[in-house]
Amino acid sequence: MLNGKTINLRLIREADLEEMMQIPIHGEETFFSLYMRDEATFRSDMEKDGCWSPDEGCLLITDKQDRLLGDIGYFKPCPYSDVLEIFYHLFYPVSQRRGIMTEALQLLSAYLFAMRPIERLQIFTASANLASRRVAEKCGYLHEGTHRRALFNHGAYHDVEVYSLLREECKPLDDVLLDEEGGAQ
Amino acid sequence: MINGKNIILRSVREADLETMVELGNRVDQIGRFWPINLRSRAESLKNWKKDGLWGKEVGLLLICDFSGRMLGFVARIPYTEWSQGYEVGATIFKRADRGKGYMTEAVRLFTAYLFATEPIPRLQACVAVGNEGSKRVVEKCGFTYEGTGRKLMFVRGKLYDIQYYSLLRAECPSLKNVIKALKATAD
Which of A7, A108, B85, B187 has an alpha carbon 20 to 30 Å from B65's alpha carbon atom? Predict the structure, then answer.
């Protein structure tokens, strides 16, 4: 588990299935908002590797009472590069604009650079998804360009913004973790 | 098989694999910005038996001249799991065959063919900063520069920045017109 100051990141458990199956699709024009979860895929992913492997991993974002807020994870998008791509998603609109995702992204970015000898993390967000772009920018990700018509979502093709963070631009893990006494390290 | 002016594009036959592996493994000849990992014959045969190297994931066509000599290949890969387009890559095996327009002709034919056969909105090409040859190829083929990804590709001991290029459906001429235009140009 990654203990942040106001949130935690932890591995998914079998028991999370019930709540995750009931996350409403609210129709907002964000990246994951139309994603339909299914039980068989959830169970087979959990059985295979608990949704945590070198090529692909997903963690739940929870508050300090272990209530689910969203998920954040990574995958290896490119066969000829070690780069990892990060995705993130809040489950409920009520959690927006509270800095939750910014903290989650800081934690995961710092953790991945600490755990693996990679030089670059990248994020793709729909151009219209201003909230998601703000999260990336607040965590120090640099805008690199716009991929035209790269994403099909909500019935149409959309432009996508590319962001990246290099190792030397990332906050150290100790700066974003909580220490045992409850203060920052 | 697709007949151009100086080249043909065709899918890989079993008898091609040996030559392909041999040419592709010449580290002295491989382009400065192309991966130099060696491929075994066993791995190539296994991949070929799966889908003829023309499957849902990788789709590869050989570039040959009209005498049948293998010059290189052009390929499509899905460039990320959430997107519908492909990334296009190409290589010419031997140094002596570069700079003759073979790759440009292959990419023109290949991109037009992909837009003709698949409901994709875009094709992407990634060109390492410093790879002037490939940059000229994609620009001649109508691709537009979209940005530069930092430290994206590790080749020959060094991490390179990569320039993103893309070609949208509306920017690519039809296969028929590409072939017509190629044949109308003088040598």
Answer: B85
